[in-house]
Write a sequence for this structure.
């Protein structure tokens, strides 16, 4: 009976000061191997200074079918954005 | 040559990296997963990078206007001074990782000492190489643990590889005339300093991996003197094929 | 879901693509879109990893350390490309192992060009220059394809490809500036790789089945014939620069159309190779299958070790 190596999602910080960004995925039998593989696969051209690996099956994703109820209600809340507020041009530094 | 000993010394270190890189190069595209192919290639590339630095330096010391490629590709088999361990074939993945690990542990200890060499070029190569070799050792060591511990089949295969490769470990510590001269000048690495450490470290990892060290106390040697195994001729046939078939050309 | 509802969803879906919106894996998509993508992305992935073999063939024989390192790095990149593309397929719920199974049983296709043998060092030059060159022409438009994971994989691939063609051309250049033997070697390689490279851009538009649908989904931005013309027009001047002759007596500049006219492609040969009768089809497949089969105990061992470790951790926690 053989079991396939699980899939891992790879997040890489390109340089300090930036967030980890999703770079792609790969297969590995455990977390240590996932880190090693990620180093060899995704940072060959000095693309990173830090790596996170997460087993793909541990990620819970929102369902696009619910996008309406999840994300549309935010669309009319324009008062959350600075441009909503009218101020005279003379007001500086605001 | 004014500095024959230094030249010989550098060549023997360089040849280890070259022949091991060559062996790993055979595997690209033939490994157990894409991920391991990519990793093995990275190790091979690190080693080629090291050899280029060594050969360039050796060519300079030799002072005959030769290039890194003249040294890498155009010597006779007897003039290659790599240890027998690195020329052993890729019989299966257990051999590949076993050979790698048995060399990596030595290589890291060696580089760590070479950091203190009075020769600035060698110290500089070591400074860069240590980071590479540390990773190689982590990679191969992790694999030995996986294979040793994994399944009954993998344990047997890994043990088989260790048993076969073990006889080549002692040669790593042989001290040639050039080695002795360089050690006395504070340039070369005195490998006897860390021989015990080498075996202790390996024993610890093999034990963790459910593997044992072979009983036999008989060791095989010769590479450092230029007397190689039967494999070497075939390795050189590939390595030198272009340079021998089309002499004096640029590529 | 009723047929009506599906039709409605399909219309919304097509409209999204037409607006240049990206489709992500969990979005609703027509079954055909999913299947077509799995097929095209996996074929592409297979081509990358089968493509490692003809070039891998020369790693141990590369004529200089510099060339050896470049070739290793190139073949390694191709492994990476295969990996990125298999990952993109996996977002659609098909595993890499299933895709390998399709490749190994001959159900899946890969680019026919890799069924030709690499017999001289100049082939490393010709492949980088022509084969990677043709691949780039195929791939750059895919960076904007509609399926997000495919587009993202292609962005990464294209970034890495740029050195492949350059290293190939540099190999050719060195040969062409070398001895007569080297020049002959370069010409011979061009003679052998030219026509297969043209075929690599796919059958003529008249015979290409999927084109219209693929255009809509941005799996294809230009027709095969247009891509081929683009490839020829950009490559002929490069061959001239090398001092090499393109092995096509009918090749000549057409002033009126502003493109090169070229001779007839031997499509019989193309279909013969596609159907498995090229010089290396069997060898390539054998190499892949044996790598996979010989690696089984290694993959199993790693998994078993991981499970034991996990079990031990759990036990310690209790
Ligand atoms: Fe490619
Ligand atoms: Fe590629
Ligand atoms: Fe490429």
């Amino acid at each position: 009976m053989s079991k396939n190596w699980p899939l891992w999602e790879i997040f890489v910080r390109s340089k300090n000061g930036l967030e980890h960004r999703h770079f792609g995925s790969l297969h590995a039998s455990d977390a240590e191997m996932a880190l090693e593989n990620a180093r060899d696969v995704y940072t060959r051209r000095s693309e990173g200074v830090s790596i996170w690996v997460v087993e793909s099956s541990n990620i819970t994703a929102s369902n696009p079918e619910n996008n309406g109820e999840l994300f549309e209600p935010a669309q009319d809340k324009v008062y959350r954005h600075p441009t909503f507020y009218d101020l005279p041009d003379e007001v500086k530094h605001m | 040559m004014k500095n024959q000993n230094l030249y010989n010394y550098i060549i023997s270190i360089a040849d280890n990296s070259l022949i091991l890189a060559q062996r790993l190069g055979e595997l690209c595209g033939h490994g157990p997963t894409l991920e391991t192919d990519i990793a093995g290639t990275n190790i091979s590339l690190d080693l080629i990078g090291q050899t280029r630095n060594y050969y360039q330096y050796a060519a300079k010391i030799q002072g005959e206007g030769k290039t890194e490629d003249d040294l890498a590709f155009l010597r006779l088999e007897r003039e290659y001074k790599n240890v027998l361990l690195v020329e052993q074939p890729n019989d299966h993945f257990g051999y590949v990782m076993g050979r790698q690990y048995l060399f990596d542990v030595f290589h890291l200890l060696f580089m760590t000492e070479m950091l203190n060499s009075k020769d600035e070029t060698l110290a500089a190569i070591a400074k860069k190489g240590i980071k590479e070799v540390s990773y190689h050792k982590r990679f191969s060591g992790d694999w030995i643990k996986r294979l040793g511990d994994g399944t009954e089949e993998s344990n047997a295969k890994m043990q088989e590889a260790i048993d076969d490769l073990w006889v080549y470990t002692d040669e790593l510590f042989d001290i040639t005339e050039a080695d002795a001269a360089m050690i006395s000048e504070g340039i070369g690495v005195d490998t006897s300093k860390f021989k015990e450490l080498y075996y202790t470290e390996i024993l610890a990892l093999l034990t963790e991996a459910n593997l044992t060290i072979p009983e036999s106390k008989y060791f095989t040697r010769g590479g450092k003197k230029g007397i190689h195994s039967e494999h070497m001729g075939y390795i050189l046939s590939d390595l030198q094929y272009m340079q021998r078939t089309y002499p004096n050309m640029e590529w | 879901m009723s047929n009506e509802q599906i039709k409605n969803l399909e219309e919304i879906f097509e409209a999204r693509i037409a607006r240049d919106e990206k489709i992500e894996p969990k979005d609703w998509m027509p079954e055909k879109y999913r299947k077509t993508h799995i097929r095209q992305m996996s074929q592409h992935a297979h081509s990358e990893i089968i493509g490692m073999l003809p070039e891998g063939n020369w790693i141990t024989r590369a004529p200089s350390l510099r060339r050896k390192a470049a070739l290793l790095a190139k073949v390694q990149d191709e492994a990476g490309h295969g990996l990125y593309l298999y990952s993109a397929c996996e977002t659609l719920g098909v595993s890499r192992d299933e895709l390998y199974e399709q490749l190994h049983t001959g159900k899946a296709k890969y680019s026919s060009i890799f069924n030709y043998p690499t017999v001289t060092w100049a082939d490393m030059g010709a492949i980088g220059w022509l084969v990677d060159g043709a691949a780039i022409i195929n791939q750059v438009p895919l960076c904007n394809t509609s399926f997000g994971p495919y587009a993202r994989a292609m962005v990464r691939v294209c970034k890495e490809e740029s050195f492949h063609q350059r290293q190939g051309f540099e190999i050719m250049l060195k040969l062409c500036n070398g001895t007569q033997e080297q020049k002959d070697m370069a010409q011979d390689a061009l003679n052998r790789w030219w026509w297969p490279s043209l075929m690599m851009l796919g059958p003529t538009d008249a015979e290409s089945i999927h084109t219209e649908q693929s255009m809509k989904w941005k799996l294809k931005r230009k027709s095969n014939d247009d891509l081929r013309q683009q490839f020829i027009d950009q490559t002929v001047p490069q061959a001239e620069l090398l001092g090499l002759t393109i092995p096509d007596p009918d090749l000549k500049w057409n002033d009126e159309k502003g493109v090169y006219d070229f001779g007839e492609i031997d499509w019989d040969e193309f279909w013969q190779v596609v159907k498995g009768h090229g010089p290396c089809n069997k060898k390539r497949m054998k190499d892949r299958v044996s790598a996979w089969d010989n690696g089984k105990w290694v993959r199993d061992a790693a998994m078993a070790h991981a499970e034991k470790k996990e079990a031990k951790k759990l036990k310690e926690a209790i």
Observations:
- Chain C has a mean pLDDT of 95.
- Residues C 78, 132, 135, 161, 164 surround fe (ii) ion (ligand 3) (CB under 6 Å).
- Residues 148-176 of chain C form the longest helix (29 residues).
